[in-house]
Design a protein that fits this description.
CATH topology of the largest domain: Rossmann fold
Mean pLDDT: 85
CATH superfamily of the largest domain: Response regulator
Number of strands: 14
Largest sheet: 6 strands, parallel
CATH class of the largest domain: Alpha Beta
Radius of gyration: 24 Å
Low-confidence stretches: 78-82, 95-102
Strand order of the largest sheet: 4-3-5-6-7-13
Structural class: alpha/beta
Number of domains: 3
Helix content: 40-55%
Order of helices and strands: HHHEEHEHEHEHEEHEHEHEHEHEHEE
Oligomer: single chain
Strand content: 15-25%
Number of helices: 13
Length: about 375
């Protein structure tokens, strides 16, 4: 029986959560409202909330409030009631993407991997591109009872918060939002960059640079961090050479390459984090008589197929480059496995899974 004010507060909140009286599926639970409702101080409330977070009855969305945690959702729903078999694979709305068949070539293996895993698990996949508002309405709709879980190929924080608040099991794929208690499946950027830098280092390169699209996403931050860590492991303490462009196209690649090569200490090797910029990088190198594999080294994210797609119709259509690649097929399969594991064990600690990357040397050269 509760004896302290904190224990009584925690017991009252637990009772309201498990009875369904306190629900955050339509509105976040805030500390201010709870203080007024329970007539306790914020210090007492936070001690009580810490207990509920520990028991996974609540999950916290930083600076905003609280939503029901997996233990609360499991307790509110009958364990005998089987979950639906439909898995929603949702990505941000894009005019040119309406089905898996018109996804970018690099994304098709992800879809195929998910399809194979779904078949093995007896699940049905529902691919959808939608706006953030449409996704929020989908997860909150009463008809979502047939929804087993969601894969979010999305980097938008409000979207992830909406999924968390709705209580639908969800996994973030190829994205990472560390502030939220959501499972993630990502590329292991650190291992991929380390392999590439080691190869270039062995050839004698000491002036390395990275080119990337200037986007505020976790993926870019991870790649920048991984590049920095790879150089630190080799004793290089000076600031890294980065060049960014706000254009994800050939002109953006050309602009970023020009910035690096016109600098005081131009690199002898470049790692390109976004292959859509590849034609522009090659065009700028050519104007300076720099040829990858002969008198310059270029490492490009992706694989041979995606590089060919990026260079289709250009003078470099048949060129090959060093690659940092991943089995996107495995990325798709692992994402669905993590989602199913979360559904079967909702109280398990949050999972952050990294799919191994591999560096493939296809023609680097020693610095001239």
């Amino acid at each position: 029986m509760p004896v302290t004010l904190t224990e009584r507060c925690a017991a009252d909140l637990t009772r309201e959560i498990l009875s369904g009286k306190l629900d955050a599926r339509t509105e976040l639970i805030t500390e201010r409202k709870l203080c007024e409702r329970l007539k306790v101080s914020r210090v007492t409330l936070r001690r009580a909330l810490a207990e509920l977070l520990d028991k996974r009855l609540l999950s916290r969305i930083p600076s905003k409030g609280y939503v029901l945690g997996p233990a609360a959702i499991q307790g509110a729903e009958s364990p005998q009631q089987p979950a639906g078999r439909r898995v929603l694979v949702a990505r941000e709305f894009q005019q040119h993407v309406t089905s898996p068949e018109v996804m970018a070539a690099q994304d098709l293996p992800v879809w195929e991997g998910m399809r194979e895993e779904a078949k093995a698990l007896g699940l049905e996949l529902d691919f959808a591109t939608m706006t953030a508002r449409a996704l929020a309405e989908t997860v909150q709709h009463p008809a979502r009872k047939d929804l087993r879980g969601m894969v979010l190929a999305w980097s938008d924080l409000p979207v992830a918060e909406a999924a968390l608040a709705a209580g639908a099991p969800a996994v973030l794929m190829d994205n990472h939002l560390p502030a939220l208690p959501l499972d993630t499946v990502n590329q292991d950027e650190e291992s991929g960059l380390d392999q590439a830098v080691q190869h270039l280092w062995t050839l004698g390169h000491r002036s390395l640079a990275m080119i990337a699209y200037d986007e505020p996403t976790g993926k870019l931050i991870r790649r920048r961090s991984a590049f920095r860590i790879a150089l630190l492991r080799r004793g290089q303490l000076q600031p890294c050479k980065f060049s960014f462009s706000n254009r994800l196209d050939a002109e953006g690649g050309r602009e970023a390459t020009r910035t690096l090569l016109d600098g005081d200490d131009p690199p002898t090797a470049i790692i390109l984090a976004n292959q859509r910029m590849l034609p522009g990088v090659l065009a700028e190198l050519e104007t300076r008589n720099l040829k990858p594999g002969k008198n310059f080294s270029l490492v490009v994210w992706g694989n041979a197929d995606s590089h060919r797609d990026a260079l289709a119709g250009t003078p470099w259509a048949d060129a090959t480059f060093d690659q940092i690649g991943i089995s996107r097929h495995e990325l798709g399969r692992m994402t669905l496995r993590v989602l199913e594991a979360r559904i079967r064990d909702p109280l398990a600690p949050t999972m952050a899974v990294h799919v191994a990357m591999r560096f493939t040397a296809c023609g680097s050269s020693a610095p001239v």
